[in-house]
C-alpha cells in the first residue's frame, strides 16, 4: 500500500493558513486589549535631553513614547496604538503618529486626534532623575 501524497495545492493552502494566523497574532485588531506584564519598577530610558520640546521620542524596545509638550513637562504613554496594536513610529507636528492605519494622538494627553484608534494611548508615570527619564508602567 502506498503512502498518501499531498498535492501542491494542499501544501500551499496549509502554508497560507499558517501565515495568516501568524500575521493576525502579530497585529491583532483587539482594540488595545491588555498591555504586557507590568514593570516592577521604573525603566531608565536615558537622557531627558533626547526628547525635544513640542515633540517626543519613541522607545521601540520598551514600547514607550515620551513627549515634552512644554519645556520641562514630560509625558509617557504606551507606544502601542489602540487600534491594531502596531507600535507608533514617531512624533511629528505635536502628534504621536501611527503609520499602520493613520491614527494620531495628542502629545499632552495621548487623546485620539485622528482615527481609526478608538481610545487614547494609556499613560505611564514619568520622572526625571539625574537628567534621565524614569518611566513606570502602571
Describe this structure in words.
With 138 residues, this protein is of the alpha+beta class. The chain contains 1 helix and 10 strands, in the order H-E-E-E-E-E-E-E-E-E-E. It has a 6-stranded antiparallel β-sheet, with no helix packed on it. Strands 5-6-7-8 form a 4-stranded antiparallel β-sheet, with no helix packed on it. Strand 2 and strand 3 form a beta hairpin. The longest helix is centred in the N-terminal third of the chain and has 19 residues. About 22% of the residues have low confidence.
How do you describe this structure in short?
By secondary structure, this protein is an alpha+beta fold.
Please specify the SSE layout and strand pairing.
Elements: H1 8-26, E1 43-47, E2 55-59, E3 64-70, E4 73-78, E5 90-92, E6 95-97, E7 104-106, E8 112-114, E9 123-129, E10 132-136
List keywords for this structure.
single chain; 138 residues; alpha+beta; six-stranded antiparallel β-sheet; four-stranded antiparallel β-sheet; 34% strand
Amino acid at each position: 500500500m502506498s503512502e498518501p501524497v499531498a498535492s501542491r495545492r494542499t501544501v500551499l493552502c496549509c502554508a497560507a493558513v499558517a501565515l495568516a494566523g501568524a500575521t493576525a497574532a502579530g497585529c491583532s485588531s483587539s482594540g488595545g486589549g491588555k498591555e504586557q506584564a507590568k514593570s516592577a519598577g521604573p525603566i531608565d530610558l536615558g537622557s531627558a535631553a533626547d526628547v525635544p520640546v513640542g515633540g517626543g521620542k519613541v522607545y521601540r524596545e520598551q514600547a514607550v513614547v515620551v513627549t515634552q509638550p512644554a519645556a520641562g513637562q514630560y509625558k509617557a504613554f504606551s507606544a502601542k496604538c489602540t487600534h491594531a496594536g502596531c507600535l507608533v513610529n514617531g512624533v511629528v507636528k505635536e502628534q504621536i503618529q501611527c503609520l499602520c492605519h493613520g491614527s494620531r494622538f495628542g502629545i499632552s494627553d495621548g487623546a485620539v486626534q485622528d482615527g481609526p484608534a478608538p481610545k487614547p494611548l494609556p499613560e505611564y508615570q514619568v520622572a526625571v532623575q539625574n537628567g534621565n527619564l524614569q518611566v513606570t508602567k502602571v
